[in-house]
Every structure is written in C-alpha cells, then in structure tokens.
Amino acid sequence: MIKLFIRSTVLVIGIVLLWTGAPSWAAEVVKIGVIDLQKCIQQSEAGKKASKSLQDKADRIKKDLEVKREELKKLSEEFNKKSNVLSADAKREREKDLIRKDEDLRELVRKKEDEMHKDEYNAMQPLLNDLFEVTKKLAKDEGFTLILEAKSGVVYFNKPVEEITDKVIKLANEPKKEKKK
After folding, report:
1. At what angle do helices 45-82 and 88-142 cross, to 10 degrees?
2. Does 58 lie in the same domain as 21?
3. What tens digit of pLDDT does each residue of 84-125 get?
4. Is the dihedral of CA 19, 25, 27, 28 positive or negative?
5. Is the pTM for the entire model greater than 0.85?
6. Same domain, 22 and 83
7. Domain of 9, in residue numbers
C-alpha cells in the first residue's frame, strides 16, 4: 500500500513537473510509453528460460515432498493397525515419532517454500535489470519523456500513449540471439 502511494505520488509530481516546468519544456513534445513487465518476463527468451527452470525445480520439490507424505501416511496407517497390540509405552513412543516426523515434514515444506521464493527472486532480478536497461535505451532512442508500468495501479487511462512492451521484448531477445551464433 505504501509502495503504491509512493509510486502514485512520484508519478503525479513527475507529470506536474512535466507540464508546469520551465517554458523551454512547453515547446517539447511529451511522449509517454506504457510497458507490461509481466508480459516481457513471460515472452522474453530469458524470462521463459528462468520460468522453466523455476517450474522444473518446483516440480522436483513437489515430487520429493509427495514421497515423504506417502511415507508418513504409511507409517500412520501401520501405527493405527498395530496400536491395539502395542504396549502403552510402545504406543507413546510411536505416537511421538509420528508427531516428530509430521513436524519435520512441515518444517521441510516451509524451508522449500522459502528456498523457492529466494530462487525466484535471484532468477528474476537480473532479468528485471536487463529489461530496465533495454527500456531505458528504447526510451532514449525513440524520444520518450516518460515510461509507465501498466500493471502497477498508477495508469488509469492510456489511450493516447504508445504501448512499447513488444519492442522491449524484441530488443531484450536480440542480444541473446546474437550470443547463440
């Protein structure tokens, strides 16, 4: 919420400065572009590669956790079948063991979720930095005054602006293609 307020405030101040700035600015054409970063991530080659890598890892983790869940389920079922035959001490020991294994599994799930969040951040940060640089170059080359991110909640109407997402994706993919040759 605070980030949205700060972004909105900065945007409003920026727009006010653009239109009420020095008289020399009044003669300049204001060119505003809109970019959809999520689309850039999903459609750029680097974004697709990062997403596939993250999905593959998530699938491996899910399979491993399912195996552990099944093992715990079997132990629980085995305990329930044999609980009538076990002594009170043996029963308590098995219950403690099952509870400990359940807690261990829950802790493992939490650790794997944290690991995936870190991996996602580490995979996306360089991609976002690259997209930022490509966007900055495009803005300079094509004379944009302001580039807005379409999904940030700041853009309420964008009919008169130029949408540049596809151009950014194309430029982001070009250096990758050249490196493959």
Report:
1. 170
2. no
3. 888 888 888 888 998 999 999 999 999 999 999 999 999 999
4. negative
5. no
6. no
7. 1-28
